[in-house]
Amino acid sequence: MSAPVTKQRATHYETPGRILDIRREFPILSRKVQEKPLAYLDNAASTQMPSKVMETITAYHEFHHSNVHRGVHQLSQEASDLYEGAREKVRRFIHARDTRQVIYTSGTTAALNLIAHSWGNSRVGKGDTILVSNMEHHANIVPWYMLAKRTGVQIKVIPILDDGTLDMDAFEAMLDPSVKAVCVNHVSNALGTVNPVRTIAGMCRERGIVSVIDGAQAVGHLKVDVQELDVDFYAFSGHKMHGPTGIGILYGKLPLLNEMEPFLGGGDMILSVSFDNITWNDLPFKFEAGTPPIAQAVGLGAAIDYLNGHDRTFLYDYEQQLLSYANERLAEVPGLTFIGTAPQKAAIVSFVMKDVHPHDIGTILDGEGVAVRTGQHCAEPVMDRYGISSTTRASMAFYNTFEEIDQLRDALLKVTELFDVTD
Questions:
Q1: What is the set of active-site residues?
Q2: Is the same domain home to 319 and 304?
C-alpha cells in the first residue's frame, strides 16, 4: 500500500464569516448524509435554493395561484403581475433592452431546441454549416444534429486544446461563407472553461453569422450582460442559479425573434384563430404556448432577488479562491489527473484517478458525505477528446467552504487506500 498522505489543512485559508452566514440561508446544507456532514459539490448539475426562494414559491401557491393572462378576477391579475414581474427581473439581471427579448422556457435545453426549430428550420439547408464546439453539453449538440437530419445542414466541430480552451485560431479559420451559426457554451459544464463569448460573438457579427450561447453554467456565477456580450441568442436555466427546476430563459435579439415562427402551438401564443387563418401573438408570447410555469417563474424572480442582494463580485472572487484551493489540495492525491486546466475557469474541477472508475469514486465519496457528479456529464464528445470514458466532477458555489474541500480531499485519500493507488 502507498504511504498515507497527511490530512492537515493549510491554515492560511479561512472561510469568511459572510459565507458562514450565507450557508444558514440554505437549509439543506445543515443536513447529514451517511451520518457525515453534507459537502454538496454538485452545483454544476443543480444548485441549492435558499429559504427565501422556497418561501416565495410557497407564498405564491398559498395566496396567489391562478392562471395568467386569461382572467379578470383578482387572483389571475396577481399571478400575472408576479409572472410578468419576474420577466422584468430577468431583463434587468441580464441587461436586455426589452422584456420582449425574454422568453420563458422549461430550461436551457428547451431554449436551444426552440432556436434550432424556429430559427434553424427556415434559415439553413444543404451547403450551409453550423459550428459547434467540442466542449458542448448534449443540449447544444443534439438539437443541431436533429436540424441537420431535417435540413441537410452540415455540422462541423470547433476543436479544443489540451488545456480545455477553444482553439481560437482553428475557429477563425473555420468561419467561411457557408457558416450560418456558431454554438458555444459560456462556461463548460465538464471542464469549467470560461469561453471568450464577446470575442466569439464579435467574430460572428462581422461575418453575418448567428451566435448561440449556452449560458447555463454562467449566469449563477458571472455577471452576464447580453448587450455587452452582443450575442444573438443566450439560454440559461433557473436551477443552475439557486432557483427552481422547470424554468429557463431564452434571450434573443428582436429582429431574429420577430422573424422566427413559433415552435409550439396552443393557447396564449395566438391573437386570433379560425380554421382558415391563425395570427400569432406578439413577442414574447408567441413562443410561450399553453399554461406557463408560473410558480417556477416566480421562484426564478426570487432567486434573482437573492443573488442581487449579495455582492456578486465578492461571491465570484470567493468561488475562485475555492477553485484555487481545490486545485492545490487535490494535487496532493496520488494518481489524480485533472481534466481541463484552462487559465480562465469557473469553480469546476474534473479529474480521473489511475485504475479507479469514477462511479467507484463517487460511491466512496458519498459514504463520506461528499456529493459529486461522476460520468460523462452529458458531454460525451469531451470525454472522447481526452480518450477517457468519464470523470469525477466537483463543482462549487459560493456557499461551499474550504473545510468541504478538505472533506473531499480526505475522502479521495480513502479511495487511494482502498484501491492501493500510487503516483
A1: 378
A2: no
